[in-house]
Amino acid sequence: MKRPYVFITRKLPEEIIAPVKEIAEVATWPHDDVPVPRDVLMNEAKKADALLTMVADMVDEAILDAGKQLKVVANMGVGFDNIDVQAATKRGIAVCNTPDVLTDTTADLTFALLLATARRMVEAAQFIKEGKWKSWSPFLLAGVDVHHKTIGIVGMGNIGKAVAKRAIGFDMNVLYHNRSRNIEAEKRLGATYCSFEELLERADFVVCLTPLTNETRHMFNKEAFRKMKRSAIFVNAARGAVVDEQALYEALVSGEIAGAGLDVFEQEPIDASHPLLALPNVIALPHIGSATKETRTKMMELCCRNIIAILTGSQPETLVNKEWSMRS
Ligand SMILES: O=CC(=O)O
């Protein structure tokens, strides 16, 4: 019987993909820092039984249509807004993601970004490197306190809850907004449910951890930033397009909010000329929420296990389209 064909859109460590090679022919885009061009992905999709994709790869209806024998798209990320899941389901293609294994790692980065923005850590590190430190002075690089303040978490999924847990360690008051109430989070973490508007008005730190959907696109718009405290710090570790970046820029420049810590952007990657990078009250990171060696390894391994499961006729561990049923 013909072995299935798997295409992986970035170079991954050989030892991680070895189990896939035991059951399939595997081809890999040979770079780890250059995305696969669309025409290459399209051609590969035509032959592939499985695709292992990155969150930066657009897997739209045209790619799925090309994949006449495609059975699974295993995406290396918890988010899957880069994939047309509905179109995949219609074609009997399973979509898998990598939740759970990255929860604590992403929460660590989110909280680090909050702390770094509040305490001006990047600016301070730059200051010392530039030889500007002349003396201890009373308000030198003074930031704002995090402890005992109010955090407002928008999106109380697993990562939201893990951030709330960290916030409690800093004696913070935890507010959250979510599509539906999370009673477990309220009981276990003492988090208080609020409307989006109330959260914006009350939080000292507004943290965006909601997935990108048609409902959440540009949820943080001009009006939302206007509702925040002038002292508020906004942190986004979810997806850039949940935010209207132009509105964020204007809110930061006009002093409508005090600062922002951003791990994600509307169009990634951004280059050094991006207007937000010119603002002293912004800390920007290149989408590294889950980027630790341990966690990225676990994410790759999970993708491989999901592909093997589908190609050998068993249930994948982390299926996105629960209504999927295997293509005959
Ligand atoms: O952004 C990364 C992810 O969705 O895991």
TrEMBL record:
Protein family membership: Belongs to the D-isomer specific 2-hydroxyacid dehydrogenase family.
Protein name: Glyoxylate reductase
Domain D-isomer specific 2-hydroxyacid dehydrogenase NAD-binding as annotated: residue spans: 111-289
Keyword list, A-Z: Oxidoreductase
Transmembrane segments: none
Domain of life: Bacteria
Entry GO MF terms: glyoxylate reductase (NADPH) activity; hydroxypyruvate reductase [NAD(P)H] activity; NAD binding
Organism taxonomic ancestry: Bacteria, Bacillati, Bacillota, Bacilli, Bacillales
Native source species: Parageobacillus caldoxylosilyticus NBRC 107762
D-isomer specific 2-hydroxyacid dehydrogenase catalytic domain residues: 6-321
One GO term describing the cellular component: cytosol
